[in-house]
Amino acid sequence: MARRRAAVPLPSIDDLFTSQEERDSAAAGSVASVPLGLIDPFPNHPFRVADDEEMEALAESVAENGVLVPLTVIPGDGGRYTLVSGHRRKRAAELAGLAEAPCIVREMTQDEAVIAMVDSNLQRESILPSERAFAYSMRLEAMRRQGERTDLTCAQNAHKLKGRKSRDVLAEELGVSKDKVRRYIRLTHLVPGILDLVDEGRMRMLPAVEVSYLSRREQETLLDAMRENACTPSHSQALKMKRFSQEGELGEALIRSIMEEEKPNQVESFRIPKRSIARFFRPSASREEVEARVVRALELLEQAERKRAARGKGGDPWAM
After folding, report:
1. Which run of H or of E encompasses 58?
2. Fewest Cβ atoms nearer than 10 Å: which of 117, 174, 196, 311?
3. 240-243: long-range contacts at Cβ-Cβ below 8 A with a sequence spacing of 24 or more?
4. What are the boundaries of each domain within the chain?
């Protein structure tokens, strides 16, 4: 007799787009239906809400099942509310044609709301560098303000600085290094065009951090130079521009001169499949040895061509 397998419950699409903290909050508090038109987004919300395929799937789930995990809001003026967590679910509810959504209404200070908003969104798997940068910055400022107030107690977690730097406490709570927090926050000093290149993966983190120390005008000039040369600065080029900027000598001509420098990864190269020439080299031959032998062979072939031309015989030495 075949043994029956126990059914394994699968997570709903709504669960896939929320953090465990949000689901725990939904279970802990009372829920009220709030008209979507009365819910305002969180001020300077650093996380993007895109109408992509994931949003389409979430909207379909909401249309069929409703909003399973309530939004978290704080009461505002004039009967309105500010959304703390659930920006994607609110957008999905709008796309699904809902007029209201279940919400947990909580009383929070502005700093407590910032920390809750950032923490709920940092649970997402896919976060752009710019999103993480501004989220870290907002959370750090909220923690600093909390550290300055002796009458403020945050029940969510112990943000007691106890003489330590806020950035060190933030790194510890996020489970990342202090240098990583510093680097991400430096990205908030980039002009939008350069920050977009970082988000798109076309500019690396380390040179972007160094470029963030340039003035806004210098960065705009650099952005023009990058577009003209179809390249981004290397780490060493970024360091060079940062040094000249700090010395007050980084003008437009110097920026363009630095960006016109040839970088090793931009040197045009000619590649030959290894299998095509493997029989001419021992298996342990290094790349440098292979390159040197190929160049030497071409030099000898060129010499033979010249000798043949001098004797007036002509012919194509490349012909087989």
Report:
1. helix 53-65
2. 311
3. 241/210, 241/211, 241/214, 242/210, 242/211, 242/213, 242/214
4. 13-107, 108-188, 190-265
Overall fold of domain 13-107: 3.90.1530
Given a contact cutoff of 8 angstroms between Cβ atoms, the answer to whether 160 and 172 are in contact is no
Contacts 24+ apart (CB under 8 A), 224-227: 225/255, 225/256, 225/259, 226/197, 226/259
Instruction: Record the pTM.
Output: 0.66
Chain centre distance of CA 280: 46
